[in-house]
Amino acid sequence: MPTKGKLKRKSFFVDERALEQARKALGVKTAAEVVRVSVERIAEMEAFWQFMKNSRQTLRPGSIEDP
Questions:
Q1: What is the pTM of this model?
Q2: What's the whole-number mean pLDDT along residues 37-66?
Q3: 66: in domain
């Protein structure tokens, strides 16, 4: 799994049930991967929503055609 930055060791408490559900949903094998993938996806979604917010009302109606 590619990482964009340097990994840093952290210690925290996590609900085991939530961790297991996230592991299954993400399709990863380890708890460490669950945390890494989850954090990466949250960061990606935040960047996406910032883009959406910044580009709000810049497209004119009808400027995008349906396939």
A1: 0.68
A2: 85
A3: no
